[in-house]
Amino acid sequence: MSTLGGPINQLSLLLSESSTCQLDHSLLFWSRDKDLPDSVRTNLDAPISTVRSHGILGGLKQLRRCISQSKPDILHIWHPYLLNWEHLGLLHRVGAKIVCSMGNPADRWIRYPTHAFKFYVRRSDHVIFSSTAQQEFAQQFLKIGASSVVYPSEQFTKSDHKADIRQELGISQTSFIIGAAGRLIPGKRLKDLIWSMEILKTVRDDIHLVVWGDGPQLKILQEYARELDLLSHIHFVGWATDFQSRVQDCLCLISCSDAHGVSACAATASSAGIPFVSAGAKGTLELFVNGKNSLLFGPGDSGSLARCINNLVEDKSLSSQLVTDAKLLQETALSPSRFADSYLKVFHTVANE
């Protein structure tokens, strides 16, 4: 199996958690980055090939050559909506069957798909969506054959080492930390979260936001925080190698995305045992109920988000109740073994068609 990018933690689950069968696999990453993150080589026990896309045609030819040499039965493409016109006519010639995983893109990627995105979805033997709402939404704009819904998942490993993120950031041990994680792109709507921090600062001064991740909006978000005089309370830390032990120290994990899919942050929060606070998008509402296993706010409503965060700070019993009720999701819809088995069932079906 070759994959084009993708969520590293979910890919690790896919290759290690299945209780039904083993998958003979190799991994191919196509990236403009100088090297793969340490988490890739640490978490993924597999032969790994990398292709640097310095020049469009040179990178694509190298990519096709790497795929051809591995002779995969299935070409698994993660986030096909990122493919552009220059990718057409190159990857599909390897003759492998194709499975596409949609992830949780902003709705505009699906509503206004690129030609390459439409081509690979139409060419795919199976498309995997992250929610039923996303599946139904995509069917309005894309020609889709076989498809299924697999909610995201994550498995936190137990470790004796616990990072002290407050000490690392130089903030008070009595302060509250809220977290956000993911690719820093417009669809994540992190400006809504930064604006909620401005609202909270008028009420209390002991709440800090830690943002894990990188992406094209990093400098824009940093400048926005600077304009609001919030850089002392908002910390952009990139992708820490010990992310799991750090995120468990957060009061909650927040997703502001209003996309139709389910955010991977939902699985991260459930696995870490911390409350999930999210915009009440359609995919999110398939799993989460406001005040029961999560706190939900209206998409784009920074005031409502600030109120959710303040409620968690002021009501310590609320956090425990939300985590307890969300535990059922971690054992069912967001279960690591369910996630892996669902993917491998798709691979088995496609390979034997």
What's the SSE blueprint?
Blueprint: E1 2-3, H1 8-16, E2 27-31, H2 38-43, E3 48-52, H3 56-70, E4 74-78, E5 97-101, H4 107-111, H5 115-123, E6 126-129, H6 132-138, E7 147-149, H7 165-169, E8 176-181, H8 190-201, E9 207-212, H9 218-227, E10 234-238, H10 243-247, E11 252-255, H11 264-272, E12 276-279, E13 295-297, H12 302-314, H13 316-331, H14 336-351
Helix pairs in contact: 1-14, 8-12, 12-13
Descriptive account of the structure:
The protein is built from 14 helices and 13 strands. With 353 residues, it is α/β, with parallel strands linked by helices. The chain has 2 domains: 2-153 and 335-351, Rossmann fold (3-Layer(aba) Sandwich); 165-331, 3-Layer(aba) Sandwich (Rossmann fold). Strand 9, helix 9 and strand 10 form a beta-alpha-beta unit. Helix 8 (190-201) packs across helix 12 (302-314).
